[in-house]
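Weekly modeling sync, notes
Attendees: AB, CL, MP (scribe)

Item 1: holo prediction request
CL wants a bound-state model with pyridoxal-5'-phosphate before deciding which constructs to order. AB pointed out that an apo prediction alone won't tell us much about the pocket. Agreed to run with the ligand included and paste results into these notes for async review.

Input as submitted:
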Amino acid sequence: MKTFDINSFTRENIRRLQPYSSARDEFQGEASVYLDANENPFNSAYNRYPDPHQKKLKDVIANLKGIQPEQLFLGNGSDEAIDLLIRAFCNPGKDNIVIPQPTYGMYAVSADINDVETRTCLLTKDFDIDIDVIQKTWNENSRLLFLCSPNNPSGNSLSENKIRAVLEKFNGLVVLDEAYIDFTSSKSYSSWLNEFKNLAILQTLSKAWGLAGIRLGMCIANRDLISILDKIKPPYNINTMTQEVAFEALQHVPQQKIWVKQIIEERNFLKDRLEKLALTKHVYPSDANFLLVEVNDAKKIYNDLVKKGIIVRDRSNVILCDDCIRITVGTKEENKILIEALEKL
Ligand SMILES: *Cc1c(COP(=O)(O)O)cnc(C)c1O
């Protein structure tokens, strides 16, 4: 097992930080009269600050994912976790993060906001990790390395042995984004957390759970890493309504499974029909709820679809995605409308 000491890896100012102590930190438990947090006593539905530790919600999620609640950080979307990981471990103007491309754009944006350099390299032509290339990309100031599996916008899963190789070789934290994990048959890499102390996993309720609107993302990692994220997050980052809606939704796992099954069926239908179109050059294999499609003229097709009130994502400016559009799998009805529109172009 390789050694990785998260405390010495943490930025000096964060390690020394004395976190804010909220009213709900200083008193936990039940009381009949709360006069500690300057809340308004009258509007009784949402007048109280939310639980800063999201205990009830974390218990449900941890149970569902087969992890301990202490291995779980909840954020205002995964985007908050991405930002906090960069802020906790990268010194602005000095350290860098490694991002194999093409992938989710927020990693680089978050790094830019934090004045942290991004070092990019390419995935292979079939969007898998290239170990030689990636090793040449990092240097002694590389702190985080972002991998996304299944990857956005390509849709494929990265190969397991290459993820393992990166975890073994990289002298920093590997952040593995599993936003689309529920659409695959493979299981989460959270089972590797014991073996690899330098692994942090991102998941979200925005995709398979159909809850992009409530903004709930998570980081799953070893407890020492999670406690660092907890230390620097805004105290009440997950609002009461989000905690309630998520708690309720997570009671209905069978419903989520039905949606996922339907989406996968529809993905197969879409792939099949898209491959029959004259304008299609290639439909990439997908383990996610979208398809990356190479067409004969992405910009034109995108604009023609917009005119018909159908919005897809033009990815033709993205590296390795020349003339590609990304199509999210919709309902049976929506997918039919899309295919009929494309047939008429
Ligand atoms: C959609 C998506 C997310 C989700 O982000 P949230 O902030 O949780 O909504 C994260 N990572 C990737 C790669 C995504 O495509």
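Recorded for review: The CA atoms of residues 262 and 310 lie 21 Å apart.
Action items: CL to compare against the apo run; MP to circulate these notes.
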